[in-house]
Structure formats: structure tokens, C-alpha cells
Amino acid sequence: MRATAGAGGPSPAPGEPVADAGPDRGPDAAAPARVVLAEIRDTPLSVDECMAAVLFPDVGGIALFVGTVRDHDSGRGVTDLAYEAHPRAAAEIERVAAEVAAGAPVRAIAVAHRTGHLRVGETAVVVAVGAAHRAEAFAACRRLIDDIKAQVPIWKHQIFEDGAAEWVGAC
User: Class of the 34-168 domain?
Assistant: First the structure.
């Protein structure tokens, strides 16, 4: 299974499906939608890895979301942050990705979320969705990142310029 928490979990070859999301999605879909990557890791994320994972001959568009650490939150300067994941977070990110794949006319989904200490500008999450058409890819990409933020138990500990810190709920 590809969904992992940290560097020690199982990790099959790139492109190996994590979950089959169900039947063919219509005349433009040559194969069932599938989650090809659903991972939580404590090492830097690769946009190229996620893009390559969802690139198939029948994919006409890839929607991509890359979340980075910004230098502010609610008017306060942020210097860095740390993400922590619940032990079930890897299974939850896989479940959420499979639900989105099953409910949308897409070909493939890849998502990777970072844990550990990150500095401003570093990549925290990458979501890539491949579909026959851009509208479907964009809609599924947005739903996936929104559902991850709402349902996957990952928290961030923000460190502010003034030395104060705060925990922010599931991201």
C-alpha cells in the first residue's frame, strides 16, 4: 500500500495503484479512476512525482494544487511551522482520495502531504488530478484539497516572528 505515515511505511513502485476507485467514467475515460499516490511523509515533496503519477495517454488535463508555507497568518508574521499527523492520517488521506476518485470523472489522483518542520516557501502538500478534460480535473482537485483539510487529522504548529506559537486544527 502506498499510503504511509513518515519515512518508515511501505512504499511500492511509482504508478502502482493505492485504491481502485471503481468503474469506467464514461466515453472519454479509457480506464477506471484510481488513486496512484496517497502519502504522508516527513521528507520533501516532489511536484514532478505527483504530476508524473497522473499522466496517462487518456488524460487531457492535469489540475495541480501546491500548498506552501506562507510568511503570515491573520496579520502576524510566520517564520516556520511544523506539521504533525495522527497515526490514522495516512489511512484517512487514502480514504478521502478514493472517495473523490469514485465520485468524479477523473483518471488518476496523486496526493502527498508533508509532516515535520518546514520553513517559509517550502511545499506542504501536493495534489494532482488527471482527467480527460480540465473542468473535471479542476473540480476534483479542489474537492480533494478541501476534503483533506476538513477530514484528515493533520495539525500545524505555527511559529510567529514575535516568538509566539499556536496550533491550528486539521489542515
Answer: alpha beta
Q: How far apart are CA 109 and CA 141, in angstroms?
A: 8
Mean pLDDT lowest for which of 11-15, 62-66, 108-112, 145-149? 11-15
Q: Is it the case that residue 65 has pLDDT exceeding 90? A: yes
Indicate if the alpha-carbon torsion angle 130, 55, 35, 121 is positive or negative: negative
The C-alpha cell 496517462 sits at 56
Whose CA is closest to 86, among 153, 27, 134, 15? 153
Residue with cell 508574521: 77
pTM for the predicted model, two decimal places:
0.82
- Give mean pLDDT, residues 90-106: 97
Would you list the domain boundaries of the chain? 34-168
More confident residue, 7 or 60: 60
Question: Residues 6 or more apart from 51 whose CB is under 8 A from it?
Answer: 62, 64, 110, 128
DSSP track, 24-77: --STT-SS--EEEEEEEESS---HHHHHHHT--TT--EEEEEEEE--SEETTEE
